Structure formats: structure tokens, C-alpha cells
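#struct-help
A.M.: can someone run this one for me? Single chain, 593 residues.
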Amino acid sequence: MSGISDLLDRLPFDTHALRKVPGLSGSCLLELDLARGIGETAPTSPLEALRERHTPTLHAVVEGLREAAGDAKILGLIVHAHAPTLTPAHAEEVRAAVEGFADSGKPVVAWAETYGEMTNGAWGYLVATAADEVWLQPSGYLQVTGAVAESLHLRGALDKLDVEPQFDRRHEYKSAAELYTQTHPSEANLEMLDALTESALETSLAGIARGRGLEVDDVRTVLDEGALTPQRALDLRLVDRVGYRDEAYTALREKVGAEDDVELRYVERYDSGFSAVEAVRGRGRKVVAVVQANGVIHLGRAGNSPFEGRSIGSDSLGAALRHVAQDEKIGAVVLRVDSPGGSAAASDAIRREILQLKKEKPVVASMGSVAASGGYYISMPSTEIVADATTLTGSIGVLAGKFVTQAGFERIGINRALVEKGRYAGMLSGQRPFTEDEWALLSRMLDEIYADFTTKAAKDRGLPLDELEPRARGRVWTGAQAADLGLVDHVGGLRTAVDRACALADLDPETTTTRISPKLGIFDRFMPSDNSDAPTTMSLRPGRLTADLAGGAVRAALGEGIPFLDDALTALGLRGTGVLTMTPIRWADGVGR
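D.P.: on it. C-alpha cells below:
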């Protein structure tokens, strides 16, 4: 029954009528398997729900553990903490949820075959340290080596292709253009990367030290040893037991006095029946709506493709925000943002919708792994902002430019003619460089967009412009740094954001339910929209996203809508979605790939 319930939860339409007999029949041990990954958002189509049926969503894990903590049928929790794909921000949020479950007094055991295998196992181990006992397989290692961030530079490859990148930015820390313009990071970029990795390292060390009852400096010293054998990790009190999976499960069963036939249940597939009962008892109570904003930001409807992933369309998200504003059952809104940014015009359109929504009910932005540039733009007008300590945010800056590809094409025998009518008609063409007038126009536009961005950010955050602007300049911050600078209000995850939304709306966080919104009926997916307020999600065949000046110039050179070209540009990082796009920083696992 739980598998059916989970499938119904994952379907992107209202399944209330399909639910008949929720809940568990007896006692149960919960499992949290981080090896399967954690999804940021719920599926947006039935096909996607089927494809991702084995990947739990963050919302399902966080809410499932919270509900299970108070359920007498749940005896304990075991965490498989081998987590090769877990992002730092998700590690923080899952760890907090595991800690909350452990606070109920029910035992928690974490185990892993290895915490890192020629990789950095920091984030899976961080979750494990929230458990009462940490287990490590006898052949494994504790390889928690710190924090690593990577930046990519393609200028050398572009030179070999006779492609000249021409970009301008505001300001020195807006280093996304360095992907194309430089062979190595600038001093400002290196300064930013150094501060980001140190902040992330401090977050992981503090969490590990708290979980293991050690001092932060002691943990830092120990981890500088590199890969620790199980015996060494045991001697240093970094793990409690050395053993295999079956031994860890047996130990948990003995702790709770459970027989071998006591059911195991994944956290996201656990259903206590509480939701169904509360749906009846709580009829008429206000709920907190979680509106998801995941992907690059562009004008039009949201999309999803294998290469580009999910995207935030200003039309789709705007309609969703208007929908929750009009729903009287919703007392507060959490806007879950996971986005590196994109179009300035689309970001501003979404900002306006949030300002309008905020007149009706409080809005709390919950930042995921990345909420920077345009992702910060759509978060900043919220009533409050909550970010994980390792969220990549800020990047209040702009950039734009193009690639001059003419020489490269001539080298392989492709000749193109350019006929221009109008002073700036060929400005974005890849067949020739910018003229002095075109550089001046580009510079003026960037100045105007940057001034607009910083002015609105200062207003939304209640800061004088002369205080905010030095914290802008295109610089990326971690959530912990942003909180110190006044760019966000609280450090925490999705649950913290829900609690803050409840506080702002005068709702009881213990009895108030959350729901992903909007969630449409099954037939709404196939019927045409009556108007632009209809909260439809994405196109069945998503169109190509609005491109930035660089990507647009490349496609203009060979023609619009060439699938293999679009996909190749995306894979190489030569394609973006607007002037508010974040520097392409990624947390790395230490593997040379």
C-alpha cells in the first residue's frame, strides 16, 4: 500500500480521490538510503514521476521524518550514508531532519560501505554524524578531506577554434564570462572561490564536531590525515562500530527489540495515515504552500529537457503565484528556489508577482543548493529569506557578450555573408567583432541593468544602496556569509522556512500541513488553458529557452533551433539564459573529472 501511496504523492496532479486506505498496519523501522540521491523538486509529469520513482524528494524526506518522530509505530531509523551525489545544501537539510527525528528519543544508526572511495565523503558523513551510532564497513575508509569548488575555463579551446569571446560584466566578481575569456581564474575569482570553500569547510567541520562531541580544531586536524582506516577512525571516535550492513541492521533491531519480520520502510514511502486523518480534522485550517522554482529563468512557460533540465518560465511561475494568492486555504507561501539565474526581464516579472502576493500573505524564500544572480533576484522581495549555510547565493551582477566565429568557419571552408540595415542590426552577429559604438551600447545597458538590480535589492533588503553595492559586484556568497551580510535572514533549510512562514502567518507549525502547490487535476494536464492565470506547468514539448547574447550570437551564426548545436552548446557551457546568470561554480568531490 505504501508503494501506491508514494506513487500517488509523486504524481503531479491532485490524487485525493484515489486514496482509500493509507497508513501502516504495524510497527516499522524506517530506512533513509542516500545512495539513491535526493531530488530537489517533485516530478512535473506522469512520465517523469515514473522515471524518478526511486529518487526521494527533499520535501518527502524532511516531512516524512518529522511526521515519523511522533508516530508510535515507528521504532527507529537506519541511514545508508554512502551519498555520492548529495549536494552540501541537501546534506545540511537531511542532517537537520535526522537530528529532529533523533530528538524524539528513537534510535538512529548510520552505516556506509565507505565514506569516500578515492572521493571526498564529507557530505554523506555529515549526515551520518546526526545518528546515535556511526558504522563503517571493515574494508571502507573515512575519507573526509574538506571542501572543493571548481571553475571551468574554455579560452584555450576557443583560441584553437579561432573563436573570439567578447564579453563585458558588472563587476569584477561576476566571473561567469571567465569561462570563455580566460585560461585561468582572475584574482577576484580566486579570492571568491577561496572564501566559498572555507565557509563550506567550516560548516561541515562544525556539524561533524557537534555530532561526534569533538572540538572543531580537533576534527580539522584529524581530517588532514586524509583517508582513515576503520580502526583509525574508531580510535579517533569518528565512528562507533566497524561492521557490515547486516550487522548494523541487527544492532538496530536489538536496540528496539524488533523481530526479523518487523517491516522496513523507506522514509519517503512511509505513510502513517496522519495526513488523511488531519485532512478531515483540519478541514478549514490554513496550510503552507510550497511553490517550486527550479532551473534557469526565462520568459514564457517552464520547460524540461534532457540537456537543460528543468527551467523557470516567468509565465508559469507567475500564474502559480497568482493561484496561491487567490487560494483562501493557503495562509503562507514558501518559495523554494534552486536556480543559477537567467533572464533579467523574466526575473523582474517574477519579482513583481511576489511583491503582489506578499500583500495577501507572507512569502518566505527557501534557497536550495543555488539561488544566485536571477535566483537571488526572485528571492529578494520575499518577506524573509532562508538559506542553507552552503547555498551559493548573491552574485548580484550582470554580464553579456558574444562569440566572433567568422575566422573559425573560414578555416574549415564555410563562408557567410552579412547584410546589415540599421546602425546596430549586426551587433550580435558572430561574423564580426563589436564596433566602438556597439561596445558603448553594451556597456550602457549593463550599467543600467546593474543599477536596477542593486537598487531593487537594496530596497527589498532594507539596506542603503551604498551598503549593499559593495556586497554585490557579482560576488557569490555562501548562505552563511550572506546571513552575516544581511542578504538573507536565516540559515536553515526547507523546514526552517516552513516554521518561519507559520510564525509570520500566526499558524501553529506543529499542526499546520504543507503542500506542493499548485497541484492540478489529471485532466487539467491535457486541457488547453482558459487564460494566462491558469496554473499550468510546462509545455509538452518545451521550446528552446531564451538565450543570452552569447548563445544567441552562436545560434544566429548557424541558424535557430538546430538541435545538435543547441545540445552541444549546453554541454560545453556556451549557452546561457540571460544577463543575470551566476558564475558556473560547482562543489566537487575531488575526483579528476
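A.M.: thanks! Residues 284-388+492-529 form a domain with the 2-enoyl-CoA Hydratase; Chain A, domain 1 fold (CATH 3.90.226.10).
D.P.: also worth noting: The CA atoms of residues 363 and 382 lie 5 Å apart.
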